[in-house]
Design brief:
Elements (H helix, E strand, L loop, with lengths): L4 H7 L4 H8 L3 H5 L1 E7 L5 E4 L2 E5 L5 E2 L10 H11 L4 H8 L3 E3 L5 E11 L2 E14 L25 E5 L5 H14 L11 E5 L7 E2 L2 E2 L7 E5 L3 H11 L4 E4 L5 H12 L3 E7 L3 H5 L5 H5 L5 E6 L6 E11 L3 E5 L3
Parallel strand pairs: 8-14, 8-15, 9-12, 9-13, 13-14
Antiparallel strand pairs: 1-2, 1-7, 2-3, 3-4, 5-6, 6-7, 10-11, 15-16, 16-17
Helix pairs in contact: 7-8
C-alpha cells in the first residue's frame, strides 16, 4: 500500500508496536479504515466500512476478542504521551471536551474518569480508552450536489443534511463548505463569505490555529465554540453570507439559527436522523421546520457506503401548516 501523508500522520500517534500491527493489515482494510480503538489491557480493535473487528498478534482480523492482541499499559501510556506531545495545557483543555484534535484534522475520543465541579467537566483522569478517528477529506464529493441546492436566484439555499450516525455527513458538509466559499464559474456562482461554527473540531480540523482540512478561501472558523454562541458571534461580528455548523439538535441551537436566518444569513447544517419521519418527530427541531428555515434537505444513508445521497428535496409549506417533502432526486 502507498502510505499517504494523511494516513502516516494518524498512525504516527500510536506506540510503534501497535503501529506495526495496523500496518500489517490487508490493504483493502487499510484503505477503508475509519477508527482505531486502543483500550488499556483490552483487545486492539478497528472500525472500517461501517463494521468493526479485532486485530490479532499476527496482524490479522478476527471477530473473536479471545484471540486478539491485548494493549499493554506501557503501549497505552506511550500512545497517550505521543498524542499529548504538543502542549500539556492545550491537551488538558481539550480533554474537558472528551476529545483531542491531531495534526491532519484527525480526532481522538478519550475515555476515563471525568472530574466535575458544579456540574461542569473540569478534567479527566485514569484515561483507559482512546478512539482514533481518521479524517477523510474527499475533495469534490459535493460537486454533483451543489447545483441541486441553488435557489431561484442562483444562490445557495439554506440546506439541512439529514444523516444517521457515521453516514458521511461531515465529509459532505466540509466539501460543500469549500465549494460555497470558492464559488463555481460553471454554475455562475460567486464565492461567499462563510463562517464555520465547528463545536467539535470535525469540519475544519483546526490544529495549532490552522484548519487542517480545506474549507475554502473565504471561510472563517470558530473552533471548539458552542454552536449557539458561535452562530450569534458570527452574525454579530463576522458578516457571513452563509453559516455552516454540524449536528444541531438543542433548543439553544434552534433559537440561534432562527436569529441568523432572520438576519438574512443562509444556513447549512446537519442533523442526526435515519429518515425524514424520524426528524419530524423531534420536538426541538419543530420551530425550524415550521418557520420554513430550510429551502433544501439532503437525505444520506450508508446503503452504498458513507455519504450515499438518497434524495435531495425541496421543502415547502402546505395547508394547514405542514411541511411537505417534494421533488426527490
Amino acid at each position: 500500500m502507498v502510505v499517504t501523508p494523511a494516513f502516516e500522520s494518524i498512525l504516527s500517534n500510536l506506540a510503534p508496536s501497535l503501529r506495526g500491527l495496523i500496518f500489517s493489515l490487508p490493504e483493502n482494510v487499510l484503505q477503508s479504515l475509519e477508527e482505531i480503538r486502543v483500550r488499556k489491557l483490552r483487545p486492539l480493535a478497528i472500525g472500517f466500512r461501517g463494521s468493526s473487528a479485532f486485530v490479532t498478534p499476527q496482524g490479522e482480523l478476527s471477530a473473536n476478542p479471545a484471540g486478539a492482541y491485548l494493549v499493554s499499559p506501557e503501549e497505552f501510556l506511550l500512545t497517550l504521551q505521543i498524542i499529548s506531545r504538543s502542549s500539556v495545557y492545550v491537551f488538558e483543555e481539550q480533554l474537558k471536551q472528551g476529545f483531542i484534535t491531531l495534526p491532519g484534522g484527525h480526532r481522538v475520543g478519550v475515555c476515563g474518569h471525568f472530574l466535575l465541579e458544579n456540574g461542569r467537566i473540569i478534567g479527566i483522569k485514569e484515561v483507559n480508552g482512546l478512539n482514533l478517528r481518521i479524517a477523510r477529506e474527499i475533495i469534490g464529493c459535493a460537486v454533483p450536489l451543489l447545483p441541486k441546492l441553488l435557489d431561484e436566484s442562483n444562490q445557495i439555499g439554506s440546506t439541512l443534511i439529514v444523516s444517521p450516525p457515521q453516514g458521511g455527513k461531515t465529509t459532505l458538509l466540509r466539501d460543500l463548505t469549500r465549494l460555497i466559499s470558492t464559488g463555481s464559474s460553471s454554475l455562475n456562482l460567486a464565492g461567499c463569505k462563510v463562517v464555520v461554527v465547528d463545536e467539535r473540531s470535525e469540519i475544519a480540523g483546526v490544529y495549532d490555529g490552522i484548519p487542517q482540512l480545506d474549507v475554502g478561501p473565504e471561510t472563517d472558523v470558530l473552533d471548539a465554540c458552542p454552536k449557539a454562541d458561535g452562530i450569534r458571534i458570527a452574525v454579530r461580528s463576522l458578516s457571513p453570507e452563509v453559516v455552516v455548523t454540524d449536528e444541531i439538535g438543542t433548543e439553544e441551537d434552534v433559537a440561534a439559527l432562527l436569529e441568523a436566518v432572520n438576519s438574512g444569513v443562509r444556513i447549512i447544517a446537519t442533523v442526526h436522523a435515519g429518515s425524514w419521519r424520524e426528524l419530524e418527530a423531534r420536538p426541538s427541531l419543530q420551530p425550524l421546520l415550521q418557520a420554513e428555515t430550510f429551502v433544501n434537505a439532503v437525505l444520506l444513508s450508508r446503503r452504498h457506503g458513507p455519504g450515499t445521497v438518497e434524495g435531495v428535496v425541496r421543502l415547502k409549506r402546505q395547508p394547514p401548516g405542514r411541511i411537505e417533502v417534494s421533488g426527490s432526486a
